Amino acid sequence: MSVMNAPGSAPARSAGRPPSMGGNFSTWANRHRKWLFAAPAMIFVGVLIVFPLAWTLYLSLTDSQGSVRAKTDFIGLENYLTVLTDTERFWPAVGRTLSFTGVALVCEVVLGMGIALLLWRPFRGEKWVRVAILLPLVATPVAVGMMWRLIFDPNIGFANQLLGMVGIPPQPWLSGQDTALGTTIFMDVWQWTPMVVLILLAGLTSLSDEPDEAARVDGANSFQRFFLITLPLMMPTVVVAILLRGIDALKTFDILYATKGKGGGSFHEVETLNVYAYGLSFDYNQYGLSSAVLILFFMIIIGSMWLLTMRKKAVSK
Amino acid sequence: MKRRSVVKYAAVAAALSLGLTACTGGGGSSDAKESGTVRVTLANHVWTEGIKAAIPEFEKSSGLKVELTQLGEDQLSDQYNVKLNAGSDEIDVMMYRPLQEGKAFAKNGYLADLTDKVSSDSGWDWKDYQEGPVKATTVDGKVVGVPIITEREVLYYRKDLLQAAGLQVPKTMEELEAASKAIKAANPEVAGFVARTGKSAAVTQFSSFLYSFGGDFTDSSGKSTVNSDAAKKAYAYYGGLIKNYGPANVSTDMSWPEAMAIFTQGKAAFYTEADSLYKNATDPAKSKVADTVGFAPLPAGPAGSKPYNIPSWGLAVNEASSNQDNAWKFIQWATSKDRTLAAQKAGVPGPRASVWSNAEGTSTYPKDLADAIAVSAKNGVGHDRPEVVTVGKAREIVGEPIVASITGADASSAADSAHESFQKFLDSEKK
Fold this sequence. Notes:
The complex is a heterodimer of chains A (about 325) and B (about 425). Chain A has about 325 residues and is mainly α. Chain A has 14 helices and no strands. Chain A has helices spanning about 10-15, 20-30, 35-60, 80-85, 90-120, 125-140, 140-150, 160-165, 180-205, 210-215, 220-250, 255-260, 275-280, 285-315. Chain A is globular. By secondary structure, chain B is α/β, with parallel strands linked by helices. Chain B has 18 helices and ten strands. Chain B has helices spanning about 5-20, 45-60, 75-85, 100-105, 115-120, 130-135, 160-165, 175-185, 200-210, 230-245, 255-265, 280, 325-335, 335-345, 355, 365-380, 390-405, 410-430; strands at about 35-45, 65-70, 95, 140, 140-145, 145-160, 190-195, 270-275, 295, 310-315. In chain B, the strands form two sheets. In chain B, strands 1, 2, 3, 6, 7, 8, 9 and 10 form an eight-stranded mixed sheet that branches. Chain B has a two-stranded antiparallel sheet with strand order 4-5. In chain B, helix 9 (about 200-210) packs across helix 10 and helix 17 (about 390-405) runs antiparallel to helix 18 (about 410-430). The model of chain B is unreliable at about 1-30 (pLDDT under 50). The chains are: A mainly alpha (about 325), B alpha/beta (about 425). Chains A and B meet through helix 3, helix 11, helix 13 and helix 14 of A and helix 1, helix 3, helix 11 and helix 17 of B.
């Protein structure tokens, strides 16, 4: 077994017999240990992140379609040009992706903050309420999608029967061209608000009570205390919640696919970039075009995350 | 948060979504020897249930071991897209949809040429197969698959509602419309007519209406004809029936499970759908109207009653498989005359002529359904969707006027714009 030498001891060996392979390796390993220890992680990142990314980037510059093994030609930025000038599917999908994310995020953060504030101070039956609130979080999104799809069925669904009981005419929900996106946002809010509650509650419980008490002594009402003390102190946590939820909401796929299927419905009413790219790949087999959409989508995600982290830095200062 | 971690977050986020297209090339087989295990991938289907139960029989007689993977329709096709694309030899026998994927798979070289194999065994008898199904599994003169299930569109109707309204079973499209109108007027809770409404899903069922009105998706030279007078009339008729006499709040996303649910919940009088799904309507466990369902051939349009008559599923051998001879043994067994008869008796309409001429073959079918199938098989058209490589996209294009018509938009101008897109699409495929 070779002994790990301290870096300084290497020259001593050269005085006697020629160095063995083992000795060489341990010297080499010692010199490069920071790389060696990081190697498994780097290989992992390389295989699972860099390679797919590079491959997608390559595909996006070719006319690959039908089969990825088929002969393809390098066509430069043509796919990007096609995609960026496509006002029929691509730009509406961008709009839907952003409005889905934006509206869902605002609802989730506002609702999440409200619920977190209610749960902040101890009360009787607190544990049960917390469990109940967390339930949607543990359900599989596809199952959630299927469940709501049944509830919102225009003819035999529970939602319309409920409305009927109070005399409101049936609504189209998921089947309406104008209401479908809103309905899926509702599902996303239903499922993911609990996660925001969890994050914000963790933030709230770690806040010091002193500023709040001081304000109370000074006669501030609860409204003032929330907006002038609690909220500013919570801002870093709020931005973390927005960041985590934002990435997730941008990537939403399962709920949309489970409720409206390929193409996001007959009028593409819930077709976001993810659903569009999926359809291009698996329904149309247009891998080049689909890769271009995904690369653009990737840039949108990085862009939004960059904007958010800048905001977080400003808040943290 | 440091900028580096932002990039990390973003990279992970993107890699997850980019994973969609990250298929590695290469693969292929390193071992050319035949394996004693046949890997079979099948769709969730009544046919599969029957075969699954009989597999021990095959294993015993052949000495081979069968490894079965069973998936839902969409998952199955995604699985093929990834695995076949990667040249994987993990699949030996595959259940596929000849009209949906056949051309694309054959063009990409995913399907092994079975021409010699099918003609080599006269006992198994390839000549026994109906002409339409054979045509659909033959690409460029090569047999690439063996059909296992056939389908025709028939009219499902409610005997009790018709009787109450004093109406005969409609024989023409006009009679169907009049009967739908009368029943809807008499029973406000019940729709006169229901059928698929999803842009892509409806295309296959609309096709029979298109043919019966004298149209088709393309002409003999491969040019788009979806804006012909006949096609425009068919679009307006199909959409109009659903809009005027369909369920209230009709959704434009219905495929067969949703449309069938409305019919089997007793909320519609007429329903046009594939005959192979009939058990959903006649099984009391699934259908509230099981004992009052009747079947009839598709009502005749100006060009007569011309439903599609197609093989909806077939079996093929993966070209990259190193186990092709054993894969063929499995197919030969699964599609033998005995197995086809057994499957047909369990409710799966088969592609073999001998099974249909055998009284036993239709003994388990409702009599009116067997009659309707016999009529439809005679007049049937061999395709139910555009015969192109990228069927998914073509369906979306030609399905546009269907949903336009259902929502009350002008079917004629929708057909004109669909024609333009469809022709562009056809031209791009020719390149």
